[in-house]
Design a protein that fits this description.
Length: about 475
């Protein structure tokens, strides 16, 4: 039997770097993509390499570093560390970077994320790398240099937030750290403790566990709520595998959606412009805090491109970006409680958890009360796995017909607007929204729902997950 991955998705670029089955990420293929990157992109002072905790990541990282050595580059081995920590270290050194990670997907898959000395690559560089790979382009060979360790990269990432928020920012809070196999599990604990919180490590795993922070399953939600009740926790922090997406709960164990964390963080930091995908909670467009809101296709390269366009027009603009999964991008020097945060134009997981917690603590309210003060728009999302892309695209093609779409969405009411920016996003007469979209780098089909109450959003999600399942 051919799986959705084997028949549909050989290693290729999607919304978050190159992804593929580990058996297809051979040393030859990894070397070819690394060489293509080195041949067509600015590298600066050298190459920083990091990895997540999947079993295949050390070998793939070695393949990347061997290719860079053949090109005579100064190579820094950062080991296991969060993706934003690698990006921060490389950008600070004026160097390029490659992160070996498959993010939230299962351990039989992995991937590469590429960074310029200025930050994460855009779609423009992605297309150049793909073309160079197809053409077999390589950088000139040179005298191989020694690979040097870079243990300070992880420490500098922790220090960034300790310096910015100060030793009392989370004083008095009891925080759980759901560690699973997140590569940030120790960094989260270290930062929270340094900011004054008492911490409790939860469920540290000795094998890789794929955690999708955007579509948290019912069993995990129940587990989180149980920990909060049993341990008297004020919140639980966690991330996906490579720590570019946050997962934060309130004191009841309820997961705060990533785009809500994005709105709270943007407001706390004094952002005036927000770039976010069309799938994000629509409350961002109704808040007076933000004078400019740009909606993009899903994927950090699209968010970064829009942020760069705003900065090109006005270098002083206070712009941020975030995705529905919560990864937060900072495009300006922002002031936190105790110090300044330098820009970091890649998805980060720690900032959108720490900023709302510190803000709530300073205001003397709970995280749940901070969230409740926002406009009443609620989202829910889930995904169907092992869904071949060709089947998903056929469904969207059928739904391009108004009559077919009306029949499919009959349970939601009358359609009032349609957005085809990324997938199919339909708004209905009662203000509810349903968004259907095949994943760009995994055999998955995502369903997003938004409504005026949590119950209505969950009902819409359940209804159309079932409709999509039957239609596929």
């Amino acid at each position: 039997m051919v799986s959705a991955w084997e028949g549909d998705l050989a290693p290729k670029f999607g919304t978050s770097g190159l992804r593929g089955l580990v058996v297809e990420l051979t040393p030859e293929l990894v070397a070819a993509y690394t060489e293509a990157f080195l041949a067509v992109c600015p590298i600066g002072s050298g190459l920083f390499v990091g990895r997540d905790l999947r079993p295949s990541s050390p070998r793939i990282a070695d393949d990347v570093m061997a290719s860079a050595r053949r090109a005579g580059l100064d190579v820094r081995d950062c080991g296991e560390l969060p993706t934003p920590a690698l990006a921060l270290a490389a950008m600070s050194a004026g160097a390029a970077a490659i992160m070996v990670t498959g993010s939230h997907i299962p351990a039989d898959r992995n991937g590469l994320k590429f960074y310029l000395p200025t930050g994460e690559i855009s779609k423009r560089e992605e297309e150049a790398i793909a073309a160079a790979y197809e053409a077999g382009r390589r950088p000139p060979t040179a005298l191989a240099r020694t690979i040097r360790p870079c243990a300070e990269a992880g420490r500098d990432y922790v220090a960034r937030y300790v310096t910015a928020f100060g030793p009392d920012a989370l004083a008095g809070l009891r925080l759980g750290i759901y560690q699973h196999s997140s590569v940030a599990r120790d960094a989260m604990k270290a930062v929270c403790a340094a900011l004054g919180a008492s911490t409790l490590a939860l469920a540290r795993a000795d094998h890789f566990i794929p955690v999708d922070t955007e579509a948290v399953d019912a069993a995990t939600r129940e587990m989180l709520a149980g920990w909060c009740a049993a341990e008297g926790l004020d919140a639980i922090l966690s991330t996906d595998g490579d720590a570019d997406r946050p997962m934060l709960t309130d004191a009841t164990g309820r997961v705060v959606p990533g785009d809500v964390l994005g709105v709270l963080t943007a407001r706390t930091l004094g952002a005036e412009a927000v770039c976010t995908p069309v799938s994000s909670n629509s409350m961002v467009s109704s808040m007076p805090n933000f004078t400019t809101v740009r909606l993009t296709r899903i994927g950090s390269p699209y968010v970064i491109a829009e942020m760069e366009a705003l900065l090109a027009a006005d270098p002083s603009i206070r712009v941020v970006g975030f995705e529905a999964n919560g990864g937060f991008l900072l495009g300006f020097p922002a002031k936190a409680a105790a110090g300044e945060l330098a820009p970091l134009m890649t998805r980060d997981s720690l900032l959108p958890m720490l900023a709302p917690l510190a803000d709530a603590k300073a205001a003397g309210v709970t995280l749940a009360e901070l969230v409740a003060d926002l406009p009443a728009r609620f989202t829910a999302t889930d995904r169907l796995t092992e869904t071949p892309t060709h089947a998903a695209l056929r469904l969207l093609d059928r739904l391009s017909d108004p009559a077919a779409r009306a029949a499919f969405f009959e349970a939601a009411g009358e359609e009032t607007s349609l957005d085809r920016t990324d997938g199919l996003r339909v708004r209905f007469g009662n203000g509810a929204i349903v968004h259907l979209r095949p994943s760009g780098n995994a055999p998955e089909f995502r369903v997003y729902a938004e409504a005026g109450s949590p119950r209505e959003a969950e009902h819409l999600l359940s209804t159309f997950m079932d409709r999509v399942r039957r239609a596929l």
